[in-house]
Amino acid sequence: MLISALAFSEPPSNMTQVPRPTSTRASLRHSLLFAVLVWLMMVLLVEFCALLVSFSLISSTEEKAQKLERARQANELTTSLTDTAIDIEKLVGNYIRRTSPDNRYKLFNRLGDFDNLLTKLETHYADDKQALETLRDLKTLRQSAISKLEKAETELRGSSFQDPSAAFSTLDRNLLKLGEKLEASLRQLVVRQAKEQLTLKEDASRSRESVKLSIIAISLGNIFLALAVAALFVRGVTQRLRRILTNIERFERQEPVLPPSTGSDELALLDKKFHEMTETISATRHKERVVLEYATDVILSFNDVGTITAVSRAAETCWGYPGSELLGKPVIDLITEDFQKSFVDTVRMVRQTREPKAFEGRVVTKSRGELDTLWSFNWGAEEDSMFCVAHDISERKRSERLIQESEQRIRAIIEHMPVGLAVVDSQGHILFLNNKLLEMVGKNLQELGQHTIFDLVENRFSLPIVNGSPTGEIIQTALHRRDKTPLPVEISTDIVSLSAGEAVLCTIIDVSERMKVQEIRREFLRMVTHDLRTPLASVKGYFQLLEAGAYGKQSESAESAAARATRNLAEVIDVISDLLDVDKIESGALVLAPSLTTIDSLFKEVHEKISSLAASKEITMHYEINDMPLEADVSLILRVLVNLVGNAIKFSQPGSTVALRSEFNESSVRIEVKDQGCGIPKEEQEHIFEHYKQAQKIEINGIRSSGLGLAICKRVVEAHAGLIGVQSEVGKGSTFWFTLPLTTPEETDHGKTTGSGG
């Protein structure tokens, strides 16, 4: 029942079947890492866009800063140009006041500087048409001033002016006008540059503020986006983790768990694996519950102080205690007082050695009865509890007590048996003997010491355990007694199995009384031979002479009476002869005198001896001969054949047939005597060859038998190492057969002859 429950038990219905996850490679696209990467890529994309905007703003700011730097450089050039123009104006005044090569050199040197600054400004304002126009005006004014100065010098060298001061005064006025124009142009250029520089400064300031605001906005946006992404991701992960934790708590409380999460990421796989694990554990728990519920033995556990913490349902079935009644109860209360100390010692030893131990004791049931139990203890160190299985061994103990009582009875029977018994090993050493054998030898166990069974008997015999199989033979020998007189005994041996191995059981029977009886019987038979057979033979001879007319002619009734007396005397003499033969065979005085003969010669002698009897009964004899050389005691085998054929003729109806046939194989010859008589019941066939046994216990046609003939036949055949038997069916006749071993086969022709006689 338990096996079927385990084999066909299903997991609880509240368990959700979890589909198998897809392959690892396919699930990587939906893994938790992939989700993190996607969210991170989105954040990075937004960050990249913000960086592009920041780079654009920074580039614009840098461009404006560069423009501002160029404006500053242009302002410096303009300032230098103005300073140079002022220096030129001073040098022109000095040159006009005092014309000298040095002043002229200084003037033209500064004019060269002025030209260089104009060239730089032209390069700077290459894309500014208005500024270039102003610079061209300045360059034109410079050329005009140089031209007028050179013209004045030319005129002075040509002495066209009588009054040089008047000429320079005119030049000075002209140059002053040019200087005013030049100053106006420079002022216009400076004002323009100032406005441009102010505008660029304002733009640069606005750009810097824009960059700052952009950086702050982008940073805040990134922080918000990162927080939002992290919040969404953490929320999804925590929800699924919380779902797993909820399932764990529900599973611990043995409540139905929530369905598995969808998806293929790590958390979904973890949840699916958890559901698979819960299914496996639930199935295991279910099987454990089945084992606990259907186990025939009581399974329980108790803590380190001996309080029962768990117990199976079998406690109520076996001991009568409901599980709720035992929980929290001291386990020692279940044990009877005489076993409590041993129980505590066993539990203490198991805790110390951490090795399983067994304990046998009695348990007090709820009905105040006592049960013999076998406890198996095993200490669980992690659980800090003792786990036990209590098996009811009351039947075993009862059987052991019955066996013990039976052994005591058997021992008492063996001790008081009228025959001697001895159990010996293969070397003849005595393992056990009973009191009868001690009485027979007149010794005690101490006197026998280390003697073997062979030391107690006159003739050594073989033990069947040495030969490998029982011989079934009965050994005739004598025991050595204390008074040195031999005690005739018969010893039979047989192999017995003991816990230590095989041994030999010797049954020793005192046959001294039997031998006395046999001696009396032999004396009786000798007396019968001397005092009965001889006188009866003489009387038989007298009646035969009377029947033959040796004493004159007798009346017909007298002749009939003489013939009847002769037959009766012959039967009595035959019975006496059978008795003597049986005694001779059983006493071992029968000695075979084997000689070589053939089946054909035996059958011919049989025919000569029984032909007259067959003719008187109108019985037809049929012979089927397979001739074969045979070595046997011819007289004894002939007696067996005559007895079997004579019985077949005696118990056959007139006009029937008696067949005598022979057949042979490689090792033996089989001779059969078949009749068509009344047959022998099957229940009597087993005893037909015993002494004084006769089939059907009735007379047929007035024929009586002593019941010794077949017994003699059996002994004679067995003396020749042959077998004898019968096959019969009531109303259909009988077939008596026996076998004899063949002599060494010779190269002879075997003929088959068939004959009839009547």
Please tell me about this protein's structure:
This protein is of the alpha+beta class and 758 residues long. Helix content is 57%, strand content 17%. It is built from 20 helices and 18 strands. Strands 16-17-15-14-12-18 form a six-stranded mixed beta sheet. Strands 2-1-5-4-3 form a five-stranded antiparallel beta sheet, sandwiched between helices. The protein is rod-shaped.
Evaluate the radius of gyration: 73 Å
What's the β-strand tally? 18
Distance between the termini: 79 Å
Mean pLDDT: 77
Overall form? rod-shaped
Structural class: alpha+beta
Strand content: 15-25%
- Helix percentage range: 55-70%
Sequence of strands across the biggest β-sheet: 16-17-15-14-12-18
How many DSSP helices? 20
Features:
758 residues; alpha+beta; 5-stranded antiparallel sheet; 18 strands; rod-shaped; disordered C terminus
Short description:
Helix content is 57%, strand content 17%. The protein is an alpha+beta fold.
Task: Give the topology, please.
Blueprint: H1 2-8, H2 24-27, H3 32-97, H4 101-124, H5 129-158, H6 164-252, H7 266-294, E1 298-303, E2 308-311, H8 314-318, H9 323-326, H10 337-353, E3 357-364, E4 370-380, E5 385-392, H11 394-415, E6 420-424, E7 430-433, H12 435-441, H13 445-448, H14 464-467, E8 474-480, E9 486-498, E10 501-510, H15 512-548, H16 556-586, E11 595-598, H17 599-616, E12 620-626, E13 629-632, H18 634-650, E14 657-664, E15 668-674, H19 682-685, H20 709-719, E16 723-729, E17 733-741, E18 752-757
Parallel strand pairs: 12-14
Antiparallel strand pairs: 1-2, 1-5, 3-4, 4-5, 6-7, 6-10, 8-9, 9-10, 11-13, 12-18, 14-15, 15-17, 16-17
